[in-house]
Amino acid sequence: xxxxxxxxxxxxxxxxxxxxxxxxxxxxxxxxxxxxxxxxxxxxxxxxxxxxxxxxxxxxxxxxxxxxxxxxxxxxxxxxxxxxxxxxxxxxxxxxxxxxxxxxxxxxxxxxxxxxxxxxxxxxxxxxxxxxxxxxxxxxxxxxxxxxxxxxxxxxxxxxxxxxxxxxxxxxxxxxxxxxxxxxxxxxxxxxxxxxxxxxxxxxxxxxxxxxxxxxxxxxxxxxxxxxxxxxxxxxxxxxxxxxxxxxxxxxxxxxxxxxxxxxxxxxxxxxxxxxxxxxxxxxx
Length: 285
Ligand code: C2E
Ligand code: MG
Ligand code: MG
Ligand code: MG
Hints:
Layout: H1 2-5, H2 7-36, E1 40-49, E2 55-66, E3 70-72, H3 74-84, H4 87-108, E4 116-120, H5 123-127, H6 131-142, E5 149-154, H7 155-158, H8 163-175, E6 178-184, E7 201-204, H9 206-211, H10 219-234, E8 238-241, H11 247-255, E9 260-261, H12 272-284
Parallel strand pairs: 2-4, 4-5, 5-6, 6-7, 7-8, 8-9
Antiparallel strand pairs: 1-2, 1-9, 2-3
Helix pairs in contact: 2-3, 4-6
Bound molecules: ligand C2E and magnesium ion (3 copies).
Domain EAL: 24-283
Protein name: GGDEF domain-containing protein
């Protein structure tokens, strides 16, 4: 675009780049105080069983209520927090806060079965030596069982991971914590590699869900998803699909054998009480 527009567009592009850099710098320096001041909050998005439509749990998604910029999504600040190391205390806060929330749901919905909580882990948290200890302490403090917790790690974070990096995940998996491979299918998925990883859930990336949008869906994509699901199930893994926006997608993915779904079709990420409502509607339906 800048190319065809001539000289002053370049200046404009420069100014925009400057403005972005200033914001980035400003956000980076504001991160530690933001954590102290309680400017972060968590939205929860329900995880729905494709077979019977019941709410089985939720994924915790962090947001920052910035005093000047309003609500910022994780893509705006997680990379900065990773860069500065703040991701470790921030991630610990997200874990404790959302596990606490799972405990509240469980108390209020003992009749709707176990409510599970999914929490995203960044690669920096994986290589931080306190991960296992912090998780154990949080579970003990909140009285939540390890098998109600699922930690999501992206496929790219585990690409070429050596044993040192996998060790804490193995420890957690042995305790009963589920490990999910997030955004599966976007990286250099080496399917054989799956056997080496202590994962029990595959989260199929949104790009697959998107290709189920057209009718009829791309036959090659259908085959790929079918193949992934078959392989996953034969390895005793559960398959969750991300980004389900329409009923048609949900139906297609259910037919292909996916187990759980998440997406705007069911609910956008929202405050914890929304999940109470969704689960209650579900229980009385
Ligand atoms: P993710 O873990 O893959 O989370 C799913 C993202 O897809 C979320 O974006 C969610 O809001 C969005 N989404 C859900 N349903 C739909 C849908 O139907 N259509 C579309 N178009 N999008 C949908 P969000 O909340 O902006 O989070 C982005 C990423 O930030 C997450 O991707 C995750 O990698 C990261 N993240 C979020 N919270 C945390 C956290 O506490 N710690 C760390 N380390 N990363 C986090
Ligand atoms: Mg995730
Ligand atoms: Mg994901
Ligand atoms: Mg994703």
